[in-house]
Each structure stands twice: as C-alpha cells, then as structure tokens.
C-alpha cells in the first residue's frame, strides 16, 4: 500500500467524506428522478386526449 505518512488519517477521512457525499448525491438524484417520473405520469394521465 502507498505510504501516506503522518497525514494518513486525514487523507483517509477526507476520502471517506467525499465518498459519503457522492453516495448521498446519487441517492438524492435517484429519489428525485423517481418523484418526477410519478408526477409526470400523473400529469399525462390527467391531460385530455386529442382525437385525430
């Protein structure tokens, strides 16, 4: 493994913090996309159909 020296704990905690932040952003994006899909489906179900 790479020798991180005396700052190893700081570096590892920084990487862990970034990983948690990225995971939270991914989860938030997926959750929001699901909500938007449901709202869009509800709006499409409400709109009147056009006859050709």
UniProtKB/TrEMBL annotation:
This is Heme exporter protein D. The gene is ccmD. Keywords: Cell inner membrane, Cell membrane, Cytochrome c-type biogenesis, Membrane, Transmembrane, Transmembrane helix, Transport. It is a single-pass membrane protein. It comes from Candidatus Devosia phytovorans. The lineage of its organism: Bacteria, Pseudomonadati, Pseudomonadota, Alphaproteobacteria, Hyphomicrobiales. The keyword Membrane applies. One of its GO terms (biological process) is heme transport. Its main location: membrane. InterPro entries: Haem_export_protD_CcmD.
């Amino acid at each position: 493994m790479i020798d991180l020296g005396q700052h190893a704990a700081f570096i590892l905690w920084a990487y862990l913090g970034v990983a948690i932040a990225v995971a939270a952003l991914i989860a938030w994006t997926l959750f929001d996309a699901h909500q938007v899909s449901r709202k869009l489906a509800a709006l499409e179900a409400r709109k009147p159909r056009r006859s050709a």
